[in-house]
Amino acid sequence: MQQTYPISIRVEAYDRTGLLSDVSQVVAEAKVNILAANLAVTPDRTATVRATIEVASVAQLARVMSRLEQLKDVISVQRDMGRGSKERRGRHRVRYSPGTGRALVAQWP
Which of 10, 29, 91, 96 has its CA 20 to 30 A from that of 69? Predict the structure, then answer.
């Protein structure tokens, strides 16, 4: 079995019917497992999808994030380095090329 890493991501988008379904479909098509997901909508109808996904490589993560950015009504896609995140404590670090979503530097445990 291939080793995977839990990575938290945050998708900001304009709320619409089917948004969560579309996000889930992109992740599933990449053969990536969703460990946890949460969706919140603000009064101005901006949706924030926070998800923890299991990826096998930085390249796989970059492909998923790039595809999510292409979804209708998506404003931004980024790693969620929220409070207390293991990633924030240095377990995983990835820097992306602006616009392409390609990983430039990665450090895996």
Answer: 91
